[in-house]
Write a structure and sequence with these properties.
The complex is a heterodimer.
Chain A lengths: L1 H32 L6 H16 L9 H26 L6 H24 L7 H22 L9 H23 L15 E3 L8 E3 L1 H23 L1 H11 L1 H6 L4 H27 L8 H12 L4 H30 L6 H16 L14
Antiparallel strand pairs in A: 1-2
Chain B lengths: L10 E12 L2 E12 L3 E5 L6 H8 L7 E6 L2 E3 L4 H6 L2 E3 L12 H8 L8 H6 L2 H20 L15 H14 L4 E5 L7 H18 L2 E5 L3 H7 L2 E6 L2 E6 L1 H6 L1 H8 L4
Parallel strand pairs in B: 3-8, 3-9, 6-7, 7-8
Antiparallel strand pairs in B: 1-2, 1-4, 4-5, 9-10
Classes of the chains: A mainly alpha, B alpha/beta.
């Protein structure tokens, strides 16, 4: 009995890591701007689709040259944008004509590099590293567009209005991703070993079956969490971010530009979406339903707390393990006791758990205590 | 002693014919006054007179529909709050706006935010120039903490502090930026006499020692008359008086606004 239990537990925990990755994107944006970003799932899908299509080689349907020209332009523009921010960080503030000339040079240089790289690989599918770099740039550009076109115009609006805006972004991204890259089911090949690993074969008969792709995902998630923790706690930008989360007006009054902070947060959330998208895509194939895993992140957030990075991780693990264990061990009991058809517990277990938490601990395990002053 | 008889030749900031409305409500109507370099300027008026709106226009939270603000000789119609901060305008808020989750030290450190220049990577690794810079800023912050006599709450999360101390931390954060113009929105609201005296002392010290220009909103008339060089009086979004404390005390429109007019 212990063997199957442990195997289910490990499988569940590793799936949970993927929920955590999606939830992490939500937490980042919620922390810094108080917005529940419904588009996080769509961002995951969009990132996964982009990577899949750029690395695609199935059925000789590799992308045509014109796509690569577009992609090259995007990559170049993104490189230029990154160079611009690096430059601003390096030089003192303010923008004289001299700096603008340098900036234009950097932009041209970035576009040139992007173009050359893209053309070098223009004939076929891109290698994974290049596709990842291009997609990361695209997620950055997307963040810039969202800040510039949507968020900037909604400063000081009610939370529900911002939420509706992200709902719009979600629908746009779902559709636009398919317009750009098509709606077939793609695969992402990370080059991971396909064969499951068996652990502790001497202890349990047959050993414990573990999927290496899931182990890899867990590793990525761990690295992301550490990097984000350092970023939030140790850097000036991290301090500014926490300040914005605490109080918009006060943050602005000490000279923290809200727009830049939002741009950074959405970019980081975009990169987290990229990680989640690639791993989900490698596991299940890239298809529209990835967008819906955003809904699985909801109970994770309620469990872990909307404002806590560790909460997102642990919440994801609990939900992942809980639903797998309930499916295997709770279902037979229910079937026997009530003469039910059984099955499908995986689909509702997470939400039931979230409901229980809402009743008894609405701030979640690690969230900030909710104190209402009347 | 009533008022402090000093003279200030240079204008730091001037407000010209500012009008601000929210929908159909006029918060400010055609207001003009100036703030001289080095003075303590008070804005007073009954509740809802538009005092806080005035401060919000000066530091860029609100953008008035009409009129312009000239700061350090540069005339502008609009400015963003972080730009105001970059140009040396710091402020505190009527309902304390601190970063509640952070310690006193971290709150005041955010005031140094604009003065930090090293790159992200250095900071993340916490070595080299970032380390030197952090130490340098810590020193500046420690001087402010000492000046405001809040050494004992250095590490305390500000959300847990009593009101009077929170006000002091907020002043510390504004001072950390090394501002030229300091806007204080009711710095003494809700304090007892002793705390008010402390706060008055800090404000006057800042003004004397660093030459910081101060513009404050305050309801306690004895305080206002004691520490300010000039006073502007607002009522229902209009300016009804402007002058030294002595002049304001004799101004009939001001007396009527505060005490009501006999019928």
């Amino acid at each position: 009995m212990l063997g199957p239990f442990l195997e289910t537990l490990i499988g569940g925990l590793l799936t949970g890591v993927l929920y955590s990755l999606v939830a992490l994107g939500f937490v980042l944006i919620f922390k810094a701007s108080g917005v529940f970003n419904f588009a996080q799932g769509a961002m995951v899908l969009f990132a996964a689709l982009t990577v899949a299509r750029l690395t695609d080689e199935i059925d000789g349907k590799a992308l045509g040259l014109e796509h690569f020209v577009i992609a090259a332009a995007i990559l170049g523009a993104a490189l230029a944008l990154i160079a611009w921010y690096a430059w601003r960080e390096y030089v003192a503030r303010g923008s004289g004509p001299d700096q603008r000339r340098k900036l234009a040079l950097l932009a041209a240089g970035g576009a040139l590099i992007g173009g050359v790289v893209a053309f070098a690989y223009g004939k076929g599918a891109w290698p994974l590293w290049l596709a990842l770099a291009a997609t990361a740039s695209i997620m950055g550009l997307l963040a810039y567009a969202i800040e510039r076109l949507v968020l900037r115009h909604l400063v000081n609006q009610e939370g529900i209005i911002l939420f509706m805006a992200t709902l719009g972004i979600a629908n746009f991204l779902d559709g636009f991703g398919q317009t750009l890259w098509g709606s077939d089911i793609y695969t992402i090949n990370l080059g991971l070993p396909k064969n499951p690993i068996f652990l502790f074969e001497e202890v349990f008969p047959g050993g414990l079956l573990v999927d290496p792709a899931e182990l890899f995902a867990a590793g990525i998630a761990a690295v992301l969490v550490i990097v984000l923790a350092v970023f939030f706690q140790k850097t000036r930008v991290g301090r500014a971010l926490r300040a914005v989360a605490d109080d918009h007006a006060a943050a602005q009054s000490v000279g923290i530009p809200l727009n830049t902070i939002w741009l950074i947060v959405w970019t980081v959330a975009g990169l987290v979406a990229l990680a989640a998208g690639v791993i989900w895509g490698a596991k299940l194939g890239v298809q529209f339903s990835i967008s819906l895993i955003a809904l699985k992140a909801l109970p994770v957030l309620i469990l872990g707390g909307f404002t806590s990075v560790p909460g997102a991780i642990i919440g994801g693990l609990i939900i992942g393990a809980g639903e797998k264990l309930s499916e295997i061990f709770l279902a037979p009991i229910l079937v026997q006791a009530f003469d039910l058809a059984g099955g499908g517990i995986e689909n509702w277990f997470a939400y039931m758990l979230a409901l229980v938490f809402l009743l008894f601990r609405p701030q979640g395990l690690f969230g900030e205590r909710i104190i209402e002053r009347v | 002693m009533v008022g402090r008889l000093r003279s200030f030749p240079d204008v730091l900031l001037s407000v010209e014919n500012i009008s601000l409305s929210f929908g159909g409500v006029n918060a400010l109507t055609d207001i003009s006054f100036d703030i001289a370099k080095g003075e303590v300027r008070a804005i007073i008026g009954p509740n809802g007179a538009g005092k806080s709106s005035m401060l919000n226009c000066i530091n860029g939270f609100y953008h008035p529909q009409h009129g312009a603000i000239t700061y350090k000789g540069v005339r502008r119609d609009q400015m963003k709050p972080h730009e105001a901060a970059e140009q040396g305008i710091a402020r505190t808020f009527q309902n304390i706006a601190l970063f509640r989750g952070m310690s006193t030290l971290d709150n005041i450190m955010t005031g140094r935010n604009l003065r930090m220049k090293t790159g992200l990577l250095w900071q993340a690794l916490h070595i080299g120039p970032a380390r030197r810079e952090e130490i340098e800023h810590r020193k500046a912050v420690e001087r402010i903490i000492e000046f405001l006599e809040i050494q004992h709450i250095r590490k305390a999360p500000v959300g847990t502090l009593p009101y009077g101390l929170q006000k002091r931390v907020e002043l510390g954060r504004a001072l950390a930026a090394g501002p030229e113009l300091l806007l204080l929105d009711e710095p003494m609201a809700g304090m007892n006499i002793e705390e008010k005296q402390d706060m008055c002392r800090f404000i006057l010290d800042v003004n004397d020692e660093f030459g910081t220009t101060i513009c404050l909103i305050e309801h306690d008339m004895s305080v206002v008359m004691d520490i300010s060089d000039r006073v502007v009086v607002l009522d229902y979004g209009r300016k009804i008086g402007d002058g030294t404390p002595d002049e304001i005390k004799k101004n009939e429109a001001v007396i009527a606004a505060y005490l009501g007019v006999g019928h």
